[in-house]
Amino acid sequence: MSQLRLYVTTDETGAGQVLDGLSAALGEEPYALATMEIDEKANIWEASVYLEDASEVAALAEIFASVLERLFGSDHPPVEREDIPDIDWIAKSLEGLKPVRAGRFLVHGSHDRHHVRPGDLAIEIDAGQAFGTGHHGTTIGCLEMIDTVLKAERPQNALDLGTGTGVLAMAVRMLAPIPVLATDVDPVAVRVARANARLNGIVSGVDFATAPGFHHAAFARAAPFDLIIANILARPLMKLAPGLSQHLALGGSVILSGILAEQRWKVLSAYNTVGLRHVRTYWRDGWVTLLLKG
Fold first, then answer.
1. pTM over 0.70
2. N or C: which end of the chain has fewer CB atoms below 10 A?
3. Which structural domain, as residue segments, surrounds residue 225?
């Protein structure tokens, strides 16, 4: 099913204000909202709302415009539309992807099932419309850190924030029979992750939700979490530090990635400020994965 996106181009501050305004205006309506940095040096950002029913575009565009007018006045930037087509990313991306081992996990595509050995915790992920096939250094680092943490700890519930393909949520569930909440701002990613879980035989224990922020009801229902995993990017991770720490159980563990090596100290500083301490860092391909404790 193709998807639609209504968006406005502004700066970082404006994008955050638009996101808050849309959240308030739409209430509990099931739309995914997101902000995205387009050009860091020029401070160009987009604030977006995603939908699948074209008949809702006019009404949603009107709500969007009213939010912009309240924020910026009558000369506000325009609401633009993007039609997002269905693309066979699998056919485009499978070539060259090889099985990846990370801890006890083997992440592989459907074309490499023959590489699975007895004792492997095999996760089948084909290259698709969501981030996280297991081949990126950040995903590998998270899988290795999950393996390490779950050898030493017995969390009672977990959160995979920004789940992408769902690979990290599935990894937790394979190692520990605990409830896992897997969220993403992108409804396409959530659909992909849910389908991947079914493909890998995980039919219960993981709750997938499209959730644009910690104000979403899914977090309130499941928190506090003993283990939180967030493989996103450094700047969003730093902004999420207060909300993430508020949803962490006392003594809980946090795994963070999507962080370039040179960004490590900035991220650690943001999380030290909210009371989390550094335990371990894994380094891979210029990226780092951090383990923190509450």
1. no
2. N
3. 136-293
